[in-house]
């Protein structure tokens, strides 16, 4: 079976390249959410030709959805001949803006030097194409397979995934008994298994002051100066404490094994949407967005408290200091057990393909596994796919053709093991949190 699967994948090499190029040529840039509908429809047509039943699911009412930019997801299912488990491959179809610095057309899917270039090749349309080809190869070799194979193309992962996997999870599409195993073909390198991700807490901190004429600032109270005091306290008390914390999670790169805080944005005072000269005002509002990434060993309530403790100390010690804080997003860390069936199946397939055991890693940032775990309560989930993580969002983004073919071998082998039960230990939840 292994040799037959390999041949079936190899025979589809040119098809894999063509499918990747076709997907790249659909410029699904987020924001705002261009071409989601045409891309979902293209995937649905392609999978229907392989015998999948397809559904287009619009996330009405979810963040980002508008009549102009509808959030359209596609979910496809191919039933086997006998009852059994379901393996689901989930890929996001949205890509970030191309940006500057390209030497090729970012939406042409240029092929050269054994690579396909273009925005989204690595993150993650190459992974989507790979999962489709792997499923096709398996179905050809094993038409009487038990269980079911699902493939989805979902939106908005780059902006949180709430109208994509988050929405579908709320509809029960990522929960047992419908789905048993999930593989997300994010670009974590072809010989690595990503077990999960760090936690994230985004929040907006607002400092408040009093407006006055800029020539008489003593009659007002500058909210930006108050925010400066917050930054100073963070530099003095918070950043050193975070840098000293280390996790046992195998997070990559090495620097992400510490707790981190990023200042995403600061806005205060005169806006930049004026014509002419700015007005001479003392700013009475200043807002800062923080992006706190935390570890499995940390509790969310403690992560929040160390920030509010600093703010409360400024209330006590700094005259006229007042603040408000608003949660924007919070996601707990997740790490799938190495003995989970999906991990065992993909690990065995990687070892068969490359002659060595895989590396097990944790992503520094979140991806759609967060919704599958927290909403779907399905913990037999990993990220595995072709592509080099460092190339994501970069100019001249590319994916290696050989890498996609090798990953398709791994995916096809994993499908074979999961649907036939070869990777199944005694059933137990595989979530560490």
Automatic annotation (TrEMBL):
**The keyword Repressor is assigned to this record:** no
The Peptidase M20 dimerisation domain, residue ranges: 196-315
- Matching SUPFAM superfamilies, A to Z? Bacterial exopeptidase dimerisation domain (SSF55031), Zn-dependent exopeptidases (SSF53187)
Report keywords, A-Z.
Cobalt, Hydrolase, Metal-binding, Zinc
Q: Does the keyword Zinc apply?
A: yes
Q: Which domain of life is it from?
A: Bacteria
List the Pfam families.
M20_dimer, Peptidase_M20
> Which InterPro entries does the entry mention?
ArgE/DapE, Bact_exopeptidase_dim_dom, Peptidase_M20, Peptidase_M20_dimer, Peptidase_M20A
Q: Which cofactor does it need?
A: Zn(2+); Co(2+)
Which molecular-function annotations from GO does this UniProt entry contain?
hydrolase activity; metal ion binding
Would you identify the family this protein belongs to, as annotated? Belongs to the peptidase M20A family.
Name under which the protein is recorded: Acetylornithine deacetylase/succinyl-diaminopimelate desuccinylase family protein
Lineage, opening ranks: Bacteria, Pseudomonadati, Pseudomonadota, Alphaproteobacteria, Hyphomicrobiales
